[in-house]
């Protein structure tokens, strides 16, 4: 699955950067979630931005999913808050 999304910064107790998965793509992941989730609605994925590939888990927020984007990926792809990269996601098994 491929889409573009804006990187945003969450300033919570554990600050992190995320990309919100669009509605249509979130609906797909929601439909598949019973097969892959490992609790709290977490969905394991392999994510790609540019040449960077990493395993992570998305989680639900406000009716959609959010994808964490780690610092190493942001540095490698020269990304910051407000940038809109193209993201490729593949479901993976959590086991």
Described by the principal axes of the CA atoms, the overall outline is globular
Averaged pLDDT, please?
A: 91
Strand order across the largest sheet:
1-7-4-5-6-3-2
What is the CATH class name?
Mainly Beta
Give the total of domains. Answer: 1
- Encode the helix/strand succession as letters: EEEHEEEHE
Strand proportion: 35-45%
**Total number of strands:** 7
Largest sheet: 7 strands, antiparallel
Instruction: Give the CA-CA distance, first to last residue.
Output: 21 Å
Task: Predict the CATH topology.
Answer: Elongation Factor Tu (Ef-tu), domain 3
Please name the fourth-level CATH homologous superfamily: AF2212/PG0164-like
| Class inferred from helices and paired strands | alpha+beta
| Secondary structure tally, helices | 2
Radius of gyration: 13 Å
Poorly predicted segments:
none
Approximate helicity band: 10-25%
């Amino acid at each position: 699955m491929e889409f573009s999304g804006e990187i945003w910064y969450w300033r919570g107790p554990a600050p992190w950067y995320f990309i919100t998965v669009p509605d249509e793509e979130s609906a797909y992941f929601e439909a598949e979630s019973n097969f892959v989730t490992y609790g709290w609605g977490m969905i394991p994925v392999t994510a790609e931005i540019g040449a960077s590939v990493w395993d992570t888990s998305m989680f639900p927020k406000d009716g959609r999913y959010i994808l964490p984007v780690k610092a190493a990926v942001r540095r490698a792809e020269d990304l910051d808050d407000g940038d809109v990269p193209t993201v490729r996601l593949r479901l993976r098994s959590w086991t």
